[in-house]
Specification:
This protein has 65 residues and is mainly beta. The chain has one domain. It has one helix and four strands; from the N terminus they run E-E-E-E-H. The strands form two sheets. Strands 1-2 form a two-stranded antiparallel sheet. Strand 3 and strand 4 form a beta hairpin. It is rod-shaped and about 65 Å long. The mean pLDDT is 91. Bound molecules: zinc ion (2 copies). The site of one zinc ion has 7 residues, from loops.
Length: 65
């Protein structure tokens, strides 16, 4: 999922709020394992990381290779 946080580290003391460029910093979080700030993939309406995505697929075994 996409979410926003205030990552301000003291722009105006106190923070300028809406005028602060760090007021709403975009972040991404895996819907499954909640890992943050990683590359996400869309899968059936969810946004999940590569690791969780791969778990959704079964490995084909004994296919004669
Ligand atoms: Zn600020
Ligand atoms: Zn994940």
């Amino acid at each position: 999922m996409k979410y926003y946080t205030n990552d301000c580290v003291g722009c105006g003391l106190p923070c300028l709020g809406a005028a602060c460029e760090y007021n709403k910093v975009e972040h991404f979080k895996c819907d499954y394992c909640k890992e943050e700030d990683i590359k996400l993939y869309e899968y059936e309406g969810y946004e999940i990381c590569e690791e969780c995505l791969l778990k959704e697929f079964n490995v084909v075994e004994g296919s004669g290779w």
